[in-house]
Each structure stands twice: as structure tokens, then as C-alpha cells.
Write a structure and sequence with these properties.
By secondary structure, the chain is mostly beta strands. It has one domain. Helices cover 12% and strands 31% of the residues. It contains 2 helices and 6 strands, in the order βαβββαββ. It has a 6-stranded mixed sheet with strand order 1-4-3-2-6-5. A hairpin with an 8-residue loop joins strand 2 and strand 3. The longest helix has 8 residues. The model has no long low-confidence stretch (mean pLDDT 81).
Length: 100
């Protein structure tokens, strides 16, 4: 996985691209956005990672994620149309919320 980037480094085009599934990838059914509270690789930050939900394989985390200083800032990269799900009991304890 690539190193996490500070969200302040995001251009408008990068922010838009993060919200979309890869164009032309017929295996990707949808994307989900996972908000992590102080994960091991960024213990002082909130992190948002996009996972792809695929037709023929389990969800795959792309090689990116963005760090934020607050939950409110982290939510700015979540598409406005997304719906929030509560993490399940078997999920990583660092997962704070999931958006689809």
C-alpha cells in the first residue's frame, strides 16, 4: 500500500477521482468508503480508504488512503449520495463508519 497522503494535498480532480470507481472496470460493482479512527498506520489521524466491491472476488482495498485531522474533515471526501452503515462486531476496531 502506498503511504497515506494528507488530505490538504488533494486537488479537486483527485478528490473527484477518489469518489468514483475505476472507469471501464466491469468487475467493480460499487465502491465503499471506510472511515478509520486512529488506525495503526496513522495513529494520530482519521483515515478514509475506498474499497472496491467486485463481482468475482472479495473487496479489494486500493493502494491509497487519505489522512484527516478530524471526523468532520474526513467526511468531506465521502460522496454526498452515500449512505452510512455501522461497522459490524467482527470488523477491525479502527473502523468508525462505512459509507456505500
Amino acid at each position: 500500500m502506498k503511504l497515506l497522503r494528507d488530505a490538504g494535498e488533494l486537488s479537486a480532480d483527485e478528490r473527484d477521482a477518489f469518489m468514483l470507481s475505476p472507469p471501464g472496470d466491469s468487475e467493480v460493482v460499487m465502491a465503499q468508503f471506510v472511515v478509520y479512527k486512529h488506525p495503526k498506520d496513522a495513529p494520530d489521524d482519521w483515515v478514509v480508504r475506498r474499497w472496491h466491491i467486485c463481482r468475482t472476488e472479495p473487496a479489494v482495498r486500493p493502494e491509497n488512503g487519505y489522512r484527516f485531522r478530524s471526523l468532520e474533515d474526513a467526511r468531506t471526501i465521502i460522496p454526498r449520495w452515500a449512505m452510512m452503515l455501522t461497522p459490524g462486531p467482527a470488523d477491525d476496531p479502527a473502523i468508525f463508519e462505512v459509507w456505500i
